[in-house]
Amino acid sequence: MPKHSRRYGAVATQVDADRLYEPREAIDLVKETANAKFDETVEIHLYTNADPRHADQMVREVVVMPHGLGKQIRVLVFASGEAADIARQAGADYVGEDDIIDQVESGWAEFEVGLAVPQVMPKIGRLGRVLGRRGLMPNPRSGTMVQPQDLPRAIQEAKAGRLEFRTDRTAIIHCPVGKASFSADQLMDNLSTLIDQIVRSKPSGVKGSFLKSAYLTSSMGPSIPLDLAALQALKAPD
Question: CA-CA 20 to 30 A from 67: which of 1, 182, 225, 238?
Fold first, then answer.
């Protein structure tokens, strides 16, 4: 059994592992238990009924969190010419083509979101082995292959809190919801937006209930079991 600190042991006693918490109640509790010496990330972990071995049961979608995720988002855009100018004017942190491709191929990846215009996609194909495992490779499915005229919107969304979620090989979706320093209302808005999109993204190949269990936690805090019916009833704020 893993050993936990005294701090963890103390806050863990505040969570009743035998009950299911309403989402707002869980948010209030996770804020109480997130008392590490840094601003902890609030996370949700969803165990799904999907079988990741089947392509028609995989989930990979994007959502824009209304209050962001509480961290700096550096955006790289693979583009040249007029598209590169548009990207720079829209606030991209790194813009380039051959020079940036060479940097990434050598192992550099100091960014959180990678975008590319269609004209550059054939050139960056070889970066899949570097960026693919980090979830940074631009591709049409995740909306990170962008037409030049759509770059300002894509860059703005990325910096505002664009989040890509997916099922992993164990059928679990792991997502940040925000920071413990966020207000309870901000965390609730983010959680509602995320869950609404996840419920809508139920794959056609999954029969019956999509979600089997859900837990809310902070980086260094205990897991709080959630009431699935109440969780799945959440809707994105207007």
Answer: 225
